[in-house]
Amino acid sequence: MKNTKKNLIKQIKMRNNTNKYKSFILFFITFLFIFSCNSFEKKDEFYYLYYSPENSTRENSFSWDSMFIEKYKMDSIIIKRYYRESYYFRFYFYQDGSFYERRKVTNIHTGYNSMDTLLMFSKKDTTYKYHSKREDFITNLISLSVFHGKYTIQNDKGIYFSQMQSMYDTTYSEFYYYDRNYKIYKFVNTLLADTCVYLRKN
């Protein structure tokens, strides 16, 4: 009788140990699955470009306080420009080794409503002119940055930059500086005789 009771207790302990082992395996598999999903969704880069008065000609920037950059793997880049409590953002998608901007364009009078695609970041030198069909133009930095412009992309000994020169106000321009992995580390904004510089800080 004692042996039977001992065997029963032994079997119960073995069963409990087996259940614990199975629970541990299940937990481990679940952990791996969650970690893998998070790794897949994880951004490669996310950082700010802050206004640098010491490198600019003004004590305060024209408009933007800072710029937040999100880079998802090699698929897309989102740039958010912050001013006070609001922000304006641009979206870029990766295709054939370069990044292109998707820009919404509307013209109320003609009923034109579409999405323009502009080459913005590349490792190959190029220049082109963009003529916008939008009609809601207001003389401010946001409108100047998306209206008629001449775009120049250049690689100067491993220093890559993309310039937008306004054709509406030729004193306005934007420069994005980035490395070979498309990590933006500097943004320069000019208007009239003033220059505003934003630098990357981790």
Keyword list:
single chain, 202 residues, alpha+beta, 2 domains, 12-stranded antiparallel beta sheet
Note down, in words, how this protein is organized.
With about 200 residues, this protein is of the alpha+beta class. It folds into 2 domains: about 1-40; about 45-200, no CATH class. The chain has 2 helices and 12 strands; from the N terminus they run H-E-E-E-E-E-E-E-H-E-E-E-E-E. The chain has helices at about 1-40, 140-145, and strands at about 45-50, 65-70, 75-85, 85-95, 100-105, 110-120, 125-130, 150-155, 160-165, 175-180, 185-190, 195-200. It has a 12-stranded antiparallel beta sheet. The longest helix has about 40 residues, at about 1-40. The N and C termini lie far apart (about 70 Å).
Task: Write a brief structural summary.
With 202 residues, the chain is of the alpha+beta class. The chain has helices at residues 2-41, 141-146, and strands at 45-51, 66-72, 76-83, 86-95, 98-107, 112-121, 126-130, 149-156, 159-166, 173-178, 184-191, 194-201. It has 2 helices and 12 strands.
Indicate the proportion of strand residues.
over 45%
Q: Count the DSSP helices.
A: 2
Shape: globular
Strand order of the largest sheet: 6-5-4-3-2-1-12-11-10-9-8-7
On the 0 to 100 scale, the average pLDDT is 80
How many strands in all? 12
Structural class: alpha+beta
Order of helices and strands: HEEEEEEEHEEEEE
Separation, N- and C-terminal Cα atoms: 72 Å
Most strands sheet: 12 strands, antiparallel
Low-confidence stretches: 24-42
How many domains, in number, for the residues? Answer: 2
Radius of gyration: 27 Å
| Helix percent band | 10-25%
